[in-house]
């Protein structure tokens, strides 16, 4: 597990290799990731959008932007957390992801970015 704290918001990430799949007649490696967002600040915050940079050892990096996470824009009270899981398909058994969330401090209405630490996506058989 990796984690990073930005502006009082802690992002923790753990990953898992889910297996191989064929998509459009090509072999893909499937990974899941589980993210916990903890509010260690004194303010009420809301996650509005996400920005991902996905690195695949056999492809060019891919950038993905979108609203919320898994269809939600969670409001996180001080001392509380929000967790979710998602996934990624790669063309190779080795890759990585990193990014940031755009959040708003609902007490001050100021927006800010919270960094998502870089995490590896690696099939166990590719480690040797």
UniProtKB/TrEMBL annotation:
<dbReference type="InterPro" id="IPR007474">
    <property type="entry name" value="ApaG_domain"/>
</dbReference>
<dbReference type="InterPro" id="IPR036767">
    <property type="entry name" value="ApaG_sf"/>
</dbReference>
<protein>
    <submittedName>
        <fullName>Co2+/Mg2+ efflux protein ApaG</fullName>
    </submittedName>
</protein>
<dbReference type="Pfam" id="PF04379">
    <property type="entry name" value="DUF525"/>
</dbReference>
<feature type="domain" description="ApaG">
    <location>
        <begin position="3"/>
        <end position="128"/>
    </location>
</feature>
